[in-house]
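Model it.
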Amino acid sequence: MSGRTGTEERRLVTSLFIDVVGSTELTVKLGPERLKAALDEAFADLRAVIAGEGGTVEKYIGDAIYALFGAPVAHPDDPERALRAAAGARAWAASRVTSEIPFGVRVGLETGEAIVDLVAAADTKQQMSVGAVVNTAARLQQRAEPGQVLVGPVAHDATAEIATFVSLGTVDLKGLGKIAVWQLDELRGTATRRRLPFVGRESELELLQLAQRRAKTRSVLALVSGPPGQGKTRLVEEFVAAWPAVRVLAARCRPGGEVGALAPLRQLLVGDRSAVALDEVVAEAIAQPERARLSDALAHSAGIRSSPSLSGLGKDERADEIQNAWRTLLRGLAAKGPVALWVEDVHWAAPEVVALVDRLSLSGEPVLVIATARPEFAEQAGIRPSGDRFFIELDALEPDAARALASSAGRDDADTIERAGGNPLFIVELARARDPGGDLPLTLQGALGARLDDLDPDDRALLARGAVLGETFTVADCALLCDRDQPAAARALARLAEWQYLDPVDGRYRFHHSLLRDVAYGRLLLADRMRLHARYARERADRDDEEVLAYHWWAALGGPEAAWVWKDEPELPLMRGEAFQAHLAAGRRHAMLFATDRAAALFERAYQLADSERSRAEAKHALADAHAQDLHGDEAWQAYQDARAHYANAGGAPPELYIGALKVLMRVGAFRQIPSLAEGSSLADEGQRAARATGDPGTLARVLIYSAFRDMDPGSEAADPDLLAEALRLSERSDPATRREILGWEAENHIRAMRIDDALAVFDQMEGLPGARTELDKMEYLRGRALIALRRGRLDELAEVTGELVSTTRHTGPHLRTHADVYESHLAFARGDWESVGRLAAETDRLIKSSPTTVFCVSAGILLGNGAVVRARAGHPDEARAIARVIKAITYERMVPASLEAMALAFTGDRVEIDAAPNIVALRLPFLAIATVATRRHDEALAVADQLDANARGGARFYAALAQAVREEVARDRRGTPPTHALLKEIGYTGWSEILSARA
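Modeled.
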């Protein structure tokens, strides 16, 4: 084998020697020529038997045939194939007993490691293998009697499932020493890889069963964690199999970009079916009339389609609406029988998927959420155990269970068990490894690598190239990368599935274990790997699946290695252009679905792939918009400035950049460090010049309106009147959507200045605009009308609008529900309906406690604050204090929390700080009026009355009436005229009159 450098491999093979024997009388009878012809015919017959089992005849030695199984083509069942060939040879000899020229055979075979020359194996078939296993098989053949098949210990162990043997004990083979030898009795047929028994894990199963029982009435999380191969999936499979009539919604997560980030949510909803199946699932669980709206939210959350209604919501409201849709779905399914959500490998899930799974496990619906994850996941995700959160961490199998598992897999020797370290996958793979005495793999990668080495080069190449496609792939995709026709690829994949390298899944193939895919992928040369990714991206990837396309392009072109891999490639600029567009499209899709972290990563890669100032500007602009919509002010502002600089080098920025930057600048609460006024003014001036250059009135109107306002906080100063006026004039020549947007800001400006009558007139204008309004538009319109009715002192109008608002939001999530309930509370408070006020506060408290992952706003705080007043006035100050603590714990806008807390504690006797400084936010004034009067802080109360009067001049009749009543109460405390509260009573706000008359 000298001179064959680079053509040799160390392989596991089975050596088979067949000696053809005849009687001396036969030799004399036939003569040499006829005997030679008979032997040639016998060799041809036996060669056909060997070839039929996939073996290769290396050479003929006298009357013996030496065949090899495992080279040049290796099979996982080569020992079985060799044994079947040996049995076939024995059967051939038996069939000739009565023939004119009877022959017998003596057979020896053994399995072991040999050095194989692949060139010789594929070409000359001579001197292709060298090793002790060859000598052992030859010695067994020499020792056999005619009709005997002798088998060495390794081949015996490997074929024990398909045959019966007779032990011959320990035999001393010349030059090889003593080994155990068996005689083949008979074949039992082809063995299939049996499912190994489930061993150990009794306590873990008991925990899952306890979680199952608790989930009958509430949501429960069972987090099964452990390192790769520790048996997480098998544990859950055994548990689910024993749970009668359970409906399992299952999903499997994969690492970044290999599948869409939201694919697990899609799997939970429709499995591997098409998106249209969502309608069937929703129809089964959700009744009309909310079916369409909730289906829209579910589809949006899973990335099936985008929802315009959700797109208009803030981040917290949006998350709450999605959670509400999932809760409603689970509630409907659970009404028909037990439901379990099973998410595998959640440590690879996108943050938005983890967040939703976490929320659903706290939702209160009767569902068991089962998640499997790596050990570090819980801490990284901030998930803590509790009474309804079971943490089941899988440790190594106990020695007895490990030994039982190893034995069932084929080898239970102490070395195998010790080296596996109790990891079930290590145990199984090491026990199944064919090297009986050499260095067994010490790690899982080694074990899986040994399995890959069992394959022939083509199959190994097929697996490696399939791994480029991801954990799951189609026959057509694999055929492309392997340069095979589809029928041939399909046959090869089916064979690999039979050997459990792959699993068939709905017309596709998936690696039997994700780590097997990783090992196969890692064996590819880097340059080959990158070229395969590029080929797939250009020739096969779905143009509509932007994220998968981007994943393959980045694997092909990303990183420092791309420079030398693609050196002198003439099509590199074209490929980089395609890769850039794929990343930009994928990032925008994620941004549209509010997966900002994933969108940002894609935009950053797009920036690295960009090859011009214009494309670099586009990437930074898209990144800025994504951060802006998620209220990451500092990140958005920096990205806008970067984009602005690149656009400047490319000839100028589009107006949309300035609109986005000015809008985020108004969200002062989104910044850790607010940009200076000079920076804002410079941006606004530049944006206006760019917008005027377009000649489009709608574009200019939007730039002007966001230049006019410096802050989105309702307590901030009014807009620049000149810019606002020009924007209004321009909007008259714009489309209805732009006109409605500009009018909305005009109404906001009036409300900030407490010009209630003027704001009402603008609302009337908006009502008359053509075009359909989204559900969100309608909700915000009703909220504005309700606020105006409340401040104008129009309780009948408030009641009518509130009824419509409550009806509109009744099936929304908890956050948006409080946007309607707060006006119902305002109405009941004004009328003195304390029972309703208390009921609404209690419902809000329950809503908050049952939705721990929902972020609530000031609406929930007002509901609770009104309820605290009622409970304290009824003689339950401790309950009011408890409500005040809830108020303080909720995250609000900057404008309200202290004043709500002051009102909540006004009748408890507790002293709290009260800020009654001038120019205070108008929304806080009624709360401060109650707090200051109830606690007899007369100077602060009179200051509040002055501010109420100042804010009442634009039509806020309630504020005027409240100011008068506050002054009357202060006068009464100072022994003046008894109060009449005439204006409050005139507008029907008798509840306010009653509260202001009370004292702590």
